[in-house]
User: What shape does this take?
Amino acid sequence: MTTEDPATTALDHARTAAGVLTTRLSGGVTAYRVHGDHGPWVVLVHGLVTPMYAWQLLADALAHAGFRVLRYDQLGRGLSDRPAVRYDLDLYVRQLDELTRALHIERAHFVGWSIGSVITSRFALASPDRVEKHVLIAPGMFIEPPLLVRALAHAPFGPKILASRAAAFIDALPAQHMSRPERFPMYVEGMREQLRYPGLAESFASTILNYPWRSGPEFRPVGEHPRPTLLIWGDADPATPYANVRRVRAVFPRAELLRFPGARHAPHVERPREVNDAITRFLAAEPATDDAGPAAAAL
Assistant: This one.
């Protein structure tokens, strides 16, 4: 007689209640949603601990504009499984690769936010022909590990200490993501919902300890690729500081830059109409036929 894993059972019930789609990949079950039934594919890749619900408005806008949109929860987040594995960049890129192949998405536009920009950049590095256009929102590149992470990286109880701070970390995110978080009362509730299911804290700690700190220079071949690239950033971002914009643009010299004055780490949540319109226009535009280089930046 076998006993069902309570964590798996709880997630299964939550997936059914939420009406998400699921597929089993090598790392476990991935929860996802598809918006639209025709048009070019757009794949949305979320940030560190803010799962696919944060893409709702952008997904709806793009579907309304004639795109098919895939958004999903990374392993360890949202309604996807929380396997007891190392949560590193290889895991997330493999999940993205397997999910798109399972859905027969051979080529798509990719939108990455924060660590999602690192994931999509690594994906584009490995599979350049599968990325049509590339959008990076507040990219998590050229980030130095915090002092606490450096102190706990090799400590025997480092993962447990970081896991114990997961809820506090989530509660602090709205003020980093938005200049006026009180206008978005449901935002933190969406993040905290993940804590109902065992494994979130442990996967969070593993991701922090295995985060691709200082990443960026290795993506120069991605930035030099002729595909159109759009860089969106709030200049008041405290999580991935706007001060890094010149270093990121050195890696992505062809990218068009859209700066959002006063916006923080989640401009697509804080300023949805402007950001959604900009991304929709960018993805719908016909690629330039010449090699004129990057578009004018809003510096």
About this structure: The chain has one domain: 6-284. Residues 290-299 have pLDDT under 50 and may be disordered.
